[in-house]
Amino acid sequence: MRALVIEDEAAVAQDVAQALSSAGFVVDIASEGEDAWYKGSVEDYDVAVLDLGLPRIDGLSVLKRWRSAQRTFPVLILSARNDWTEKVAGIEAGADDYLGKPFEMGELIARIRGLVRRAAGRASSTIEVGELVLDTHRMSATFGGRPLRLSQLEFRFLDYLAHQSGRAVSAGELAEHLYGADEPGDSNAIEALVVRLRRKIGPQVIETRRGFGYLLAGDGG
Question: Which residues bind DNA (predicted)?
C-alpha cells in the first residue's frame, strides 16, 4: 500500500512516515500544498494523511482540488485545528476521517488501516483468499493453516493483490505501490518477487493473466 503524508512540520512528517512504513506502507512526503496537490493528482495513492495548515496552498484547498478532479483515494485530515466546525468543513470537502493533534500514533495507524480496508470493501483486518489468510494488523500470513515466513515486501505484494477484489494488477501498478521513490522497482523485480512467493505458497496461488497482470487465485471479489 502506498501513502502520501502531507505535513509541514518535518519532525511530525518523519514520525508519521516511519510509523506507516513499519505498518507496511510505502510512504511519500510533501511539506507544502502545491507539491501535495501535484503528487496526489498524478500518482496513485491508497491513502493520504493531510495537514490543513500548509504553506502555498492550504490543506482544505488541496483536498477540494483532488475531489474536483475525481481523485477518490481515502484522506485522513491530521490537524491542530480541532474545532467541530473545522471537522465539518473537512468532511464536507471530501475527507474520510479527521484526527486532531496531539494524537496517538497507534490510533492514527488504526484509522488509516480502516480507511484502506473500507475503500476495498472489506470489513475485517483479516483477509481470506482460498487457503491464504492475511492479518493486516499483525502483518502475518498463513497458508493452509501453516504460518508463512514472509519479508515485508512479500507481504505487501499479497496484501495489495488481496485488496483489489479479484482484479488483475499489472507489474507497473504493483511496482508503484510496493517500492518507494528511492527503491528500484520494475517488471523484472515484480517477476522475481512472484517467483519467490510461488516457492513458498505453491505455483497456483498467484495467477498470471497474460496482458493484464497478477491476481490471487480464488479471489472473486
Answer: 124-218
Could you read off the pLDDT of 37-65 as tens digits, one per residue? 999 999 889 999 999 989 999 999 999 99
CB atoms within 10 A of CB 145: 7
Instruction: State how far the Cα of 54 lies from the Cα of 198, in Å rounded to an integer.
Output: 45
The 10s digit of each residue's pLDDT in 132-170 is 999 988 889 999 899 999 999 999 999 999 988 788 999
User: Which residue type occupies 180?
Assistant: G
One-letter amino acid identity for 187? S
- Length in residues, the chain: 221
Domains and CATH numbers, the chain: 2-119 (3.40.50.2300), 126-216 (1.10.10.10)
